[in-house]
Every structure is written in structure tokens, then in C-alpha cells.
């Protein structure tokens, strides 16, 4: 009995020291946390590709790691370089173009717009209402947004160095994970087993499936959709097609889609007198509009056997709560919570059935 106060003090100090050690470790690693999370998501998503490359390269892991690292650098840096070069070289032209929009006069809507079922008359009425504005009224409505766009572009150019450093750090961490992926996976499984036994190991396995499902269903779908939309922009002769394709990819990843940007391009083509190109681009936009709704469920189911609504809610909620990295964190958290919740329900139902069967037997 006399030892209990000393034991309580020792246990309390041990817990406080443990939490302080964890907090200090997180604080020290905080500058690298974003890169580590992104690298983890990338490595988990592309691990089957690494194994396939390793088999093709005489089962040499260092060759496969080198190939995947160079591939990641190309995937990240080539679009980054193209987009930044186009943005810097045409910044003055973009600024002049956005400023000139304040004096832009919208033409009358095309005759076929009103013939579109359901939405056609409403779109025509909105178009006519906006076209009826005077230049002063249009300038008053548009100028605040244009000024914000220009300031945002200038701010993004100023932070490009930090973004480039983050990309390089992510690729370096991913290369380390590629080299020792099996040991990292075994550590994660051991951690899950230590926390919750077989259920914890299953939760870790499901987390990897959720990451792969999001990578296939969200990122790959966004890439395909943006590429198809970019082809339409190039064919229609829209300026800054590559830059707009990168913007559409980001827009598709955050679940806004490519259609708003495509419609803006269609309106611009009609406003500049290129009605033929505008019609072609409009038809192409209508054709590719359902691509993401068809492709996304197929790829998500292929990557993870989870409810589509759960993945979609995790993507949107994670994006709002944690930013871009929430695209993966949100579905992983919901997938683990969903698995533990359903396992708990199934365990209770099984126990109830067992008790009922034993009661009826007696």
C-alpha cells in the first residue's frame, strides 16, 4: 500500500515524458511532414509499378529505385517547368488580357443555346442579362476579381522556390521509401498488431488500399480528363492550352472538374468570332463531360473494395480540412474508421447470435 503513491508519481512522470518526447519529435520533423506524407502516398500508390520495373531490370532494386526516382522527377518537374515558363513568359500578356476584360462587351448568345433541353432557356436569359450591362457596369463587377487574379499569380510566382524545394524533398524521401519499402510496411503492420491485434493489421492493410484507390480513382481520372480536355483546347486553337490543362488537372483533382474552364474557353472563342472552333470545343466538352463519372468508380473499386461514397466524402472532407494532402488523408482515416466500426458491429451481431443459439439450445 505504501508503494502506490510512488508508483502513481512514476507512472505519471513516465506518461508526461513520453508525450513530451513525441511532441518534440513532431515539432522537429514538422518541416518535413508534408514531404513525408506525400512520399508515403506516392510510394504506396506506385509500389506495384516498382515491383514490375524491378522484375524487368534483372531484379536489381537499386536500378528500379533509380528508374522510379527519375520518373518522379520527370512527372513533377516537366509540367512544373512548362507551366512556370509559360506563366513567366506570358505574364505581361496575361495581365493585359485580364485588364482588357473590364472593357469587354459580351455578344448576343448563339441561337442554338436556347434549344438545349431544360437548361437552354435559363442559360440564354442569363447570357442576355449579362450582355445588356454597360461597360462601366461590367468593369465594376469584373475589376475586383481580375485584380485578385493578378495578385494571386504574382504571389504564386514568388513562392515557386519553396514549392520546388518541397517537390525535390518529396522525391528524395520517396526514393528512400522505395529502397526499404518492405521493412517500412512490416513496421506499419507490427504497429497495427501492437495496437489492436489482427484488427489493427487489417486496418493498416486497408489504409494502403484506400491510398491506392484514391490514387487510381481520383488522380488518374483527373489526369485522363484533363488530358482529353487539353486535346480539345489545342485543336480549337485556345491560347495557353498547356497552362490551362495543368489548371484543369488541379481542378479535377479537387473535384471541381474541367467543364468550368472548358465553358470559359468556349465563351471566349464565340466572343472572338471563332464560332466554328467554339462549336467544336463545346461538342467535345459535352462528349468528355461524363468521363470522370464513369472512370472514377471503376478505378476506385479496382484499387480498394470500399464504398464509393466513403471515398468521395473522404476526398472532399480531407481537402477542406487538410488541404491538398487531405485528398489521401481523408479517405484513409474514413476507411480505417469504417472498417473498425463494421468489425465492431459484426462482432456484436455474432455474439448476439451465439447467445441466442445457446439459450435456445438449453
Account of the 3D structure:
- The structure is a single chain.
- With 362 residues, this protein is mainly α.
- The chain is built from 13 helices and no strands.
- It is globular and about 80 Å long.
- The model has no long low-confidence stretch (mean pLDDT 78).
Shape: globular
Structural class: mainly alpha
Q: Give the strand tally.
A: 0
SSE order: HHHHHHHHHHHHH
Task: Classify the beta-strand content into a percent band.
Answer: under 5%
**What are the segments in which pLDDT stays under 50 over at least 5 consecutive residues?**
none
Q: How does the major sheet shape up?
A: none
Q: What does the radius of gyration come to?
A: 27 Å
Helix content: over 70%
Distance between the termini: 46 Å
Helix segment count? Answer: 13
Mean pLDDT, to the nearest integer, reads 78
Question: How many domains comprise the coordinates?
Answer: 2
Which features does this protein show?
362 residues, mainly alpha, globular
How do the helices and strands line up, and which of them pair or pack?
Elements: H1 3-56, H2 61-89, H3 91-100, H4 120-131, H5 135-158, H6 160-179, H7 181-236, H8 241-253, H9 259-271, H10 275-288, H11 291-303, H12 308-322, H13 326-361
Amino acid at each position: 500500500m505504501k508503494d502506490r503513491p510512488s508508483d502513481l508519481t512514476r507512472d505519471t512522470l513516465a506518461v508526461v515524458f513520453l508525450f513530451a518526447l513525441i511532441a518534440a519529435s513532431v515539432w522537429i520533423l514538422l518541416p518535413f511532414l508534408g514531404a513525408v506524407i506525400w512520399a508515403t502516398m506516392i510510394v504506396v500508390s506506385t509500389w506495384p509499378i516498382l515491383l514490375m520495373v524491378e522484375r524487368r531490370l534483372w531484379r536489381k532494386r537499386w536500378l528500379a529505385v533509380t528508374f522510379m526516382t527519375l520518373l518522379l522527377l520527370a512527372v513533377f518537374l516537366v509540367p512544373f517547368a512548362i507551366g512556370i515558363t509559360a506563366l513567366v513568359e506570358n505574364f505581361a500578356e496575361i495581365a493585359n488580357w485580364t485588364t482588357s476584360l473590364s472593357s469587354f462587351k459580351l455578344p448576343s448568345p448563339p441561337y442554338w443555346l436556347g434549344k438545349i433541353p431544360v437548361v437552354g432557356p435559363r442559360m440564354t436569359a442569363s447570357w442576355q442579362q449579362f450582355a445588356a450591362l454597360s461597360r462601366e457596369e461590367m468593369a465594376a463587377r469584373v475589376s475586383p476579381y481580375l485584380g485578385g487574379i493578378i495578385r494571386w499569380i504574382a504571389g504564386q510566382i514568388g513562392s515557386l522556390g519553396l514549392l520546388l524545394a518541397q517537390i525535390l524533398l518529396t522525391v528524395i524521401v520517396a526514393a528512400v521509401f522505395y529502397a526499404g519499402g518492405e521493412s517500412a510496411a512490416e513496421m506499419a503492420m507490427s504497429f497495427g498488431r501492437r495496437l489492436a491485434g489482427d484488427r489493427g493489421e487489417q486496418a493498416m492493410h486497408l489504409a494502403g488500399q484506400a491510398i491506392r484507390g484514391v490514387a487510381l480513382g481520383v488522380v488518374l481520372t483527373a489526369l485522363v480528363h484533363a488530358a482529353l480536355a487539353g486535346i480539345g483546347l489545342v485543336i480549337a486553337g485556345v491560347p495557353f492550352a498547356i497552362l490551362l490543362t495543368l489548371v484543369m488537372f488541379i481542378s479535377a483533382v479537387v473535384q471541381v472538374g474541367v467543364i468550368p474552364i472548358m465553358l470559359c474557353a468556349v465563351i471566349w472563342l464565340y466572343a472572338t468570332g471563332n464560332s466554328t472552333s467554339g462549336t467544336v470545343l463545346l461538342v467535345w466538352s459535352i462528349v468528355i463531360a461524363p468521363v470522370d463519372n464513369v472512370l472514377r468508380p471503376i478505378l476506385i473499386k479496382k484499387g480498394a473494395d470500399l464504398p464509393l461514397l466513403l471515398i468521395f466524402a473522404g476526398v472532399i472532407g480531407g481537402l477542406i480540412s487538410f488541404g491538398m494532402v487531405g485528398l489521401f488523408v481523408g479517405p484513409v482515416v474514413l476507411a480505417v474508421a469504417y472498417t473498425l466500426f463494421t468489425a465492431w458491429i459484426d462482432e456484436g451481431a455474432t455474439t448476439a447470435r451465439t447467445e441466442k443459439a445457446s439459450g435456445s439450445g438449453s
